[in-house]
Amino acid sequence: MEGFTRGGPPPPHPLVTCAMCRKGATLVSQIFTLIGAGCSAACVSAKAPELLMIGRVFVGINSGQLPLNARSFLSFIEHVASLQRDS
Q1: What is the pLDDT of residues 29-59, one digit of tens each?
Q2: How many angstroms separate the Cα of 15 from the Cα of each of 28, 42, 70?
Q3: Nearest of 61, 40, 60, 62 to residue 52 by alpha carbon
Q4: Using an 8 Å Cβ cutoff, are 22 and 73 in contact?
Q5: What is the pLDDT of residue 59?
Q6: What is the rounded distance in angstroms from the CA atom of residue 29 to the CA atom of residue 59?
Q7: Are 73 and 19 in contact (CB under 8 A)?
Q8: Sign of the C-alpha dihedral, residues 9, 15, 17, 20?
Q9: The whole model's pTM is what?
């Protein structure tokens, strides 16, 4: 893999490589949290425990995406900082 050094951080996921994707991936993943929070809040007034389970699934999806997004966003910040140091 290109750019991978022994002992260094692993390379970012190939699907999240462009700068716009890295910046927006963290914000877009929060949509799952908002959907999950909405379902969890609605379960009380609707008296439907199924909504709570569906809400927890959406929050779990966001929790699974978080390590990928954080790693790629931190690599983007590191890249920008190195460009500013070099110039």
Answers
A1: 788 899 999 999 999 899 999 999 999 999 9
A2: 14, 34, 14
A3: 40
A4: yes
A5: 92
A6: 10
A7: no
A8: negative
A9: 0.59
